[in-house]
Specification:
five-stranded antiparallel β-sheet, Immunoglobulin-like, 2 domains, alpha+beta
Length: about 280
């Protein structure tokens, strides 16, 4: 029962991470001639091709454009006309260096008049990233979620079934180390050119979240090892606290305050790889 409860909590956090955060597609709908159409606007393209921005083609001879500019800048917006492809209205935004962001919205000319997507005075922010190898990404994801699953089971065990909690804490810390501190930095190096941009080198929230979770389990395991009894009050409290910290961390959307290209530095002739900052909203 505790494993089932832990699995539900882990899957719930995975779904939450998938639906939130600044890099997941922006979902919504628009209406033309009384008919609703759902869309998913891209926010996390790869630098190997222009970002394909697509919405359903509502028919009725609707035309329009994608309006974009570099973010955060005061550039004038540039229009990319929408064309019909495979039942969709499609516009492609130019490739930016890794961590480069574009701000965009769509404007349609419909029988009902002008229509802004996602909404009037609203824009979408996308961030380009370099390609990354699956041999690094898959273990990163698998071990991170294994750490959450086993850690949650350890936290539940600290309350309801203390036997085996120490072993679960050891496995949790091992998974967190491999997924978060080994494969995580490798993925980030491929994606944005740096292994680690959290404390003490930067303010990347994802890196700092990983560090906080890892330290919480280091402390929990240290307390357990200092106490000879596996079901000791202090050891159980430390494990429960580490599990709560991990769950709280997963409630923070992924990729907040991450890497961002400084276009001002780029315009001064700087190297794109040296113009990436962290900690921006």
């Amino acid at each position: 029962m505790l494993w089932i409860a832990a699995a539900f909590l882990m899957l719930g956090s995975a779904v939450y991470q998938r639906l939130t955060g600044p890099t997941n597609p922006l979902r919504g709908e628009f209406t033309v001639a009384g008919e609703a159409h759902r869309f998913r606007l891209k926010r996390n393209p790869i630098t190997d091709a222009p970002a394909r921005i697509a919405i359903p083609n509502p028919g009725h001879d609707v035309s329009g454009a994608v309006m974009y500019r570099r973010y955060p800048t005061a550039d004038e917006y540039t229009a990319v006309p929408l064309v019909v492809e495979d039942g969709e209205l499609v516009g492609r935004l130019p490739i930016q260096p890794a961590a480069g962001k574009l701000e965009y919205y769509l404007i349609l000319d419909t029988p009902d008049g002008g229509l802004w997507i996602p909404g009037r005075d609203e824009t979408v922010i996308l961030r380009y990233k370099d390609p990354y190898p699956l041999w690094a990404l898959i273990p990163h994801i698998v071990f991170i979620f294994l750490a959450l699953l086993i850690g949650l089971r350890a936290g539940l065990g600290a309350v309801f079934a203390p036997s085996g909690v120490r072993r679960l804490a050891v496995v949790t810390l091992a998974c967190m180390t491999v997924g978060g501190l080994v494969f995580g930095p490798i993925v980030q190096k491929y994606t944005f050119g740096a292994y680690w941009t959290g404390f003490p080198f930067g303010y990347d929230l994802t890196d700092n979240k990983t560090l906080i979770m890892w330290l919480a389990w280091v402390v929990a395991l240290a307390v357990l090892l200092l106490k000879p009894k596996a079901d000791g009050r202090w050891g159980r409290a430390a494990v429960l606290l580490a599990a709560v910290v991990a769950m709280a961390v997963y409630l923070i959307p992924h990729s907040l305050r991450g890497s961002e290209l400084d276009y001002a530095e780029l315009d001064r002739g700087g190297d794109p790889s040296e113009a990436v900052e962290t900690g921006n909203p």
